[in-house]
Amino acid sequence: MAVDRHVPPSVLKLQPYQAGKTVEQIGREIGVEVTVKLSSNENPLGSSPAALRALAAPQDYAPHLYPDAAAVALRAAIAKKLNLEPEQVICGNGSNDILEMAATLTLRPGSKAVYAQHSFVVYRLATFARGAEAIEVPAANFGHDLDAMAEACQQDGVRIVYVANPNNPTGSWHEPEAVAAFVAKIPEDVLVVLDEAYHEYVEDGPGPTLALLAKHPNLLISRTFSKIHGLAGLRIGYGLAQPGLLALLNRVRQPFNANSAAQAAAAAALADDDFIARSKDANRAGMTQLQEGLAAKGYPTIPSCGNFICFASGDGAAMFMTLLRGGVVIRNIDEYGLANWLRATVGTEENNAQLLAALPART
C-alpha cells in the first residue's frame, strides 16, 4: 500500500488498542461458551436505573437531531454536583476523548510526554500518534513514582504529564496530599492530566483534588460515566479545569463529540445516588471476596483502589487461555509490561466465585 510511505514512523510502530471483546466475539473465536466476562472493568450491576429511564424517553433528547454541541445541560449538572462553574467542565466521547484532546493541544514532533510504567496504554498511543517522544518513568510498587515523574517534567520539551489515580491496570492510588505536592512541582507550561476514571471506588473518597483546580491553571482532571455509573456503551466522560484551559481544549474538540442519548443518561446517572452507593457496596464486597479467594489459592495480588484486581499468575498468557477455555475471560496485561500478571474486574458474587473456582491452586 503506497499510502504507508507518508505515514509517520511513530504511527507505524503503534499497535492498535486491544479493547476487551464481547462475549459473543470470544465464543465465536475459540468455540467455547463464555459464561463470565471480567475483562473490561464494567459495572456488574449494569446501568443506573435513572439513566435507563432517561434513555426510554427519546423525546427528551431527539435522536433525529444533532446533539447539543456544548452539552450545556450536562455540564451544568456536573458543575452543580461538584460545586464548580459550567465553564470549568468539558464533555467528551468517554474520558479517552479528554485524554486525546489534551495530547492534540500540547504534543507535536519534538515535544515530550511523561507517564508511568504500567499506566493506561492510551497515554502512549496518544503520544506516539502525534509524533512526540515518550518519557516512561519506571514504576514504584506497581504505581506512579511521583517524585521521579516530577523530575522528568523539568526536561526541555516536556509538554504534558499523565497521572492515573487510581491507576489502570494496577489499581494503585496516591493520597491527595501526595498528588497536591506533585502538581505543585510541575512547571506552569506543562499540562498535568489527572485521570480519575475510577475515583468513585476509592473507599475514603478521592480527596480534595478539585480544590487544586483553583490553584493550578495547567491542571486537567478527567472522569468518566463508564465505570460506577454503568454507561460504558454510551461513551461519555468529562474534564475539569480552569476556563482558560478549557477554552483551548474546545478549539481541538471534535464537533458533537457527546451524543444526545449519552448526555441525557449521564445527567440522570449523576443524580442517582442510590445506584452509586449500591455499586460501591458491591465493589467492596466483591473485592474482599476476590482478595481472600486469590490468597487462599496462593496468588499474590496488588492492592487496588479500583473495581479490578491484578494477581500474579506465572505465565499470564497460558493462564489466560486456561481460564478462557473454562468459559471465564479476564484481562491479559502483557501490553502493560506485566506478562506474569492478569487483571480481573470485580464482578457479582456468583461471577467472582466462578473465576476463583476456575483457577487452579498454585503450588
From TrEMBL:
Its cofactor is pyridoxal 5'-phosphate. GO terms for molecular function: histidinol-phosphate transaminase activity; pyridoxal phosphate binding. It comes from the Bacteria. The modification N6-(pyridoxal phosphate)lysine is found at K227. CDD domains: AAT_like. Signal peptide: none annotated. One of its GO terms (biological process) is L-histidine biosynthetic process. Keywords: Amino-acid biosynthesis, Aminotransferase, Histidine biosynthesis, Pyridoxal phosphate, Transferase. It catalyses: L-histidinol phosphate + 2-oxoglutarate = 3-(imidazol-4-yl)-2-oxopropyl phosphate + L-glutamate. Its EC number is 2.6.1.9. Gene3D superfamilies: Aspartate Aminotransferase, domain 1 (3.90.1150.10), Type I PLP-dependent aspartate aminotransferase-like (Major domain) (3.40.640.10). Residues 36-359 form the Aminotransferase class I/classII large domain. Pathway: Amino-acid biosynthesis; L-histidine biosynthesis; L-histidine from 5-phospho-alpha-D-ribose 1-diphosphate: step 7/9. SUPFAM superfamilies: PLP-dependent transferases. Belongs to the class-II pyridoxal-phosphate-dependent aminotransferase family. Histidinol-phosphate aminotransferase subfamily. PANTHER family: HISTIDINOL-PHOSPHATE AMINOTRANSFERASE, HISTIDINOL-PHOSPHATE AMINOTRANSFERASE 2. Homodimer. This is Histidinol-phosphate aminotransferase. The gene is hisC.
